[in-house]
Structure formats: structure tokens, C-alpha cells
Amino acid sequence: MSLKKVQKDVEEWTSQFNVQYWQPHEILARLMEETGELAREINHKYGPKKKKESEDAKDLSDEMADIIFTLGCLANSLNVDLDEAWERVMDKCYKRDSQRYERKK
Amino acid sequence: MSLKKVQKDVEEWTSQFNVQYWQPHEILARLMEETGELAREINHKYGPKKKKESEDAKDLSDEMADIIFTLGCLANSLNVDLDEAWERVMDKCYKRDSQRYERKK
Amino acid sequence: MSLKKVQKDVEEWTSQFNVQYWQPHEILARLMEETGELAREINHKYGPKKKKESEDAKDLSDEMADIIFTLGCLANSLNVDLDEAWERVMDKCYKRDSQRYERKK
Amino acid sequence: MSLKKVQKDVEEWTSQFNVQYWQPHEILARLMEETGELAREINHKYGPKKKKESEDAKDLSDEMADIIFTLGCLANSLNVDLDEAWERVMDKCYKRDSQRYERKK
Please, what's the b/e burial string for B53-88 (b: 16 or more CB within 10 A of its CB; e: otherwise)? Predict the structure, then answer.
């Protein structure tokens, strides 16, 4: 029940338009653009280029939500169920990767 | 109630380990790696390099979930509430971007 | 003798400053940002978002040069010789990948 | 005379094949993939995931050359002269950005 809302919100918003979803490569390019904006904010906030504190806190989380929006578009356009994929990823964590990192004593 | 579960699942899994979250730049590098894997799958499935149909359908959605997992780590490590950010993004869609794309007649 | 000039130009420019090169993860984040800007321009020029022709032709090649500049910084900061790496890549093409793509008759 | 050789090497290699260059969005996706591989190596070498020293030194520079190869493909396919773009970027450094960073005393 987690990522269903993301996909539904995206579907409702995009359903208003003539071209509901771009082509996969076009959405991917948009994903790169959004990821690049997150990278810029991380360099501002935690790297060599400083900005004002107040401004950044909002930007960083918004860039993350923009990436999720873009993934929502890609998922909807390809009929992918992100909740199912999420279950598989968490399952892989608890099985395949369970010995990958050093555990607390 | 949408992205809360993603953040909670990530928190539960990572809380087992000595180093719960990497540094922001390190998580960002991981995000690039995961985004690159999605790009490779999109070129396989919709671009010039063909793979078997069965294999790809799963890979593509799993790569998307891996990106969301990495964003969950970044969000948790920075105390970002993704649901709040999501609401801001959807709000921006309906306000700022409402005239940006050609609407259905 | 090809990429030497890129590395030398970058070295000359950066040698003026107190902090000559950022840390590898910081340069990598900058590379993501520049790659994202190239992605945006490609979506403008060849994708769903149209801009003016004149403006784009310049932008696209400049974004590519910005990526090369960022790689020049990373290479210099890590004492990497890009010409040597280039020779290895071309060598790999002619050996490992020589049967990878369909040849002209 | 710097990046001309890169573009010429790429042209010679690709001219053997039926499809000499992919579409811009497809080359961009490849660029993401290669950038992601560089990110993975940087996390291995300078981040939380350690690998053997010997192995990494080579990988990192090769990933950088792979990115340059991909840019060479994009430039050739779009008739971009990277040397001209490079001159513009260096020119921008010495003019627009000349006061951007703290100079040595």
C-alpha cells in the first residue's frame, strides 16, 4: 500500500494532458536532470559550495520527491507495480544481502 | 501514508548494522550507480541492445525499486520526510505547472 | 597527445586557487550535475520540450565540454593519465568488442 | 588540436558498422550507465566499499575514458566540434568565473 499513492497521484495529474507520458528514454533523461539537481544541492549543503541553511533544507527533499515523481511517470507508462518491486527489493535485502554489512554486536 | 512505509522498511533493515547510513555524497554515488543500471536496462529493452523479454520486465522494475531504496536511505540519514516533500511536489504541479502541458479538449 | 591538453588547461586554471581540486565524491557530484544539464538539453532538442534551434546548438556542445572539464579535474586530482586510459579503451574496442556490432558488408 | 584525436578514433572505429551511431537519447542512456560505473568505482576506492588497490587504479581511469568515448560518439553523431566547445569553456573560466574561487595569496 506504499507506493500505490505515488503512482495514483501521478496518474491523476498526467491524465489531464494530451501526451500523458513521454517515451522511456525521454523520462530517463528527465530522471538524469532531476538526479543532477539533487547532486548540485548535496554539493551545496555538504560539499565545497555553501548556500544558506534555510533554503537548502527544503530544496534537498524537494529534489528527492522530483526523482520519485519521475519514477512514478516511468512506472505508470510501463505498467510497473512499484509496490511489488519494492517487496522484491526488501526480500533481496533480507535474503541475499543479509551477511553483506557488519552487524551490531 | 505513502512513502512512510518505504522509509520505515529502510530504517528497519539498516538498523541492524554498525554503520546505519553512509555519508550523503556516498549515498549519492550509489544513486548514480543505480540510475546507471536503470539506463542500461532501458537501452536493452527500448534501445539498440536487445535482451530476452522475460528477463527484462523484472529487471526494469527492480532497478526502479533500487533507486527508491537509495532515496529512502538518503532521506532517513538526513531526517527528511518524503511524504511532506511529495505533497509539496504535487502541490507545485497543480499550481505552478498547471498550464505547462497541452490539455485534452 | 590528445587529452594531455585538456588536463594541462585544467591544471593551469585550477592552480590559481587555494583549493585546487575538490574531493573525488564532490567532483563526482559535479559530474552528475553536468550530465543532468546535458540530459535536459537533449530532451529540449530531441525530445518533448522544444527550444529555439540557435540557442540549443551551442548549449549541447558546451554541456559536453563541461563534462570533459569535470573529468579533467577528477583525472588531475587523482594523477590519472587520460591519454593512457584512452589507448586502453580503443585497444579494448579493437580486441574485445571487435565482433560486438553488425559490420558493413 | 586536443579532442580532435578522440573524435577521429571514435569515427574510425564506428565507421566499420552498419549502425554507426545510436540516437542521442540512446547515447545519453549509455553515458548514464558509464557514469554510474565510475560512481561505483569511486565508492569502492574512496567510500565505504573497499576493493583491492591494484584493481581499482586501472578501473577508475578506464571508466573515465569510457565516458569520453561515449561523449565522442555523441559529438560525432551531432557534428559537434569538441575542441571549439573546449575553447569556449576555458574562455568562460577565465572570464565569467575568474572571481568565483578563492585565489592563492
Answer: eeebeebbbbbbbbbbbbbbbbbbbbebebbebbee
Q: How far apart are CA B34 and CA B20, in angstroms?
A: 19
Of D23, D29, D42, which has the smallest distance from its Cβ to B39's Cβ?
D29
State which residue of chain C sits closest to A40, comparing Cα positions.
C33
Q: In degrees, to the nearest 5, what angle opens at C-alpha A33 toward C-alphas C11 and A72?
A: 150
Task: Give the one of D19, D30, D47 whose C-beta lies nearest to B26's C-beta.
Answer: D47
Buried b / exposed e over C69-105, threshold 16 CB at 10 Å, is bbbbbbbbbbebebbebbeebbeebeeeeeeeeeeee
CATH of domain B3-95: 1.10.287.1080
DSSP category for residue B47: S
Cell numbers for B93, please give them. Answer: 504541479
Distance from CA of A16 to the nearest CA of B (A): 6
Nearest to D62 by CA among D41, D76, D47, D48: D41
Largest CA distance in chain D: 57
Q: Is there a contact between B101 and A6 if contact means CB atoms under 8 Å apart?
A: no
For residues A67 and C94, the model is more confident at A67
Q: How far apart are CA B55 and CA B21, in angstroms?
A: 31
Segment C6-62, tens digit of pLDDT? 999 999 999 999 899 999 999 999 999 999 999 999 999 998 876 666 655 568 999
A1, A2, A18: best to mutate for the B interface, most B CBs within 10 A: A2
Domain ranges within chain B, ordered by starting residue: 3-95
Query: A74, A24 in Cβ contact below 8 A?
Result: yes
Measured between CA atoms, the residue of chain A closest to residue C38 is A33
State how far the Cα of B65 lies from the Cα of A83, in Å rounded to an integer.
8
Whether residue B26 lies within 8 A of chain C, CB to CB, comes out as yes
How many angstroms separate the CA atoms of B34 and B69, rounded?
10
Q: With 90 as the cut, is the pLDDT of residue D87 above it?
A: yes
Residues of A in contact with C30 (CB under 8 A): 39, 43
Q: What is the ipTM of this complex?
A: 0.90
User: In 3-state terms, what secondary structure has residue C17?
Assistant: strand
Determine which helix (DSSP H) or strand (DSSP E) holds B75, and give its type and residue range: helix B53-77
CB A6 within 8 A of CB B86: yes
Tell whether D25 lies on the interface with A, counting CB pairs under 8 A.
yes
